[in-house]
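Methods — Computational structure assignment.
A single polypeptide chain was analysed. Its primary sequence is given first, followed by the predicted tertiary structure written as C-alpha cells.
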Amino acid sequence: MQIDPETYDRSLYRTMTGAVVPRPIGWISTTSEDGVDNLAPYSYFNVVSVDPPVVMFSPADKGPDELKDSARNVVDTGEFVHNAVTRPLAESMNETSATLPAEESEFDHTGLERVESEKVAPPRVAAADIAFECELYDVVDVGVGTMILGEIVLVHVDDTVTTDGKVDVEKVDAVGRLAGNYYASTDDRFRIERPD
C-alpha cells in the first residue's frame, strides 16, 4: 500500500495515527479570559527541549481562523498546565474529550477535582501524579494544526512515583494513545542497556 500525501484523505490520518504509537497524551488545562476552566486531551504532545524546558501540544483546528478552546485560551492568556495521564485517570481523561460549549468546564462536567496552580492561573488535575505549569513560549501554525509550545515554570511530582528523589518509570503507570478507541499502558516494560 502507498499513500500520496498530495491526495490527502482520512486514510493518511488513520495511517499516521496508527503508525506513530504509542503517543504521549497532553492532558491540557487552561482558563479562558472569562474564567472558565477547560481540560482536554491531545495525543500530539511531547517534550521539545530541556533547556529551556519546553513541551508542545498541537490541536487540529476547528476550521479556518477558528482555534479549539485549549489553543485559544493559551493564545489569549499565555498559560496552560499539562497533567500526566495514568491508568487510574484514563476514563476521566476520555470523558474530557467530549465536545462541550466553550462556556462549560470539563472539570465540572466530569466531576474531576481541580487544585490551584502556583505560578499560572489554570488549575491542575488534583489526582494527576505529575503536572507541568507552563507559560506560552511560541505558537506555530502547521497546516491544519496549531503547535503550542510552552515553557515549564514549575513541575509537580507526587512522591508515590519517585525513588530517591527521581521520577521512577516503574511507578508511573502512564497511558499512551494508539488509534481509534485504543490506548496503551506502560505496565509491560522491558530494559535494554545502551551501548557505550
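Note: The longest helix spans residues 10-19.
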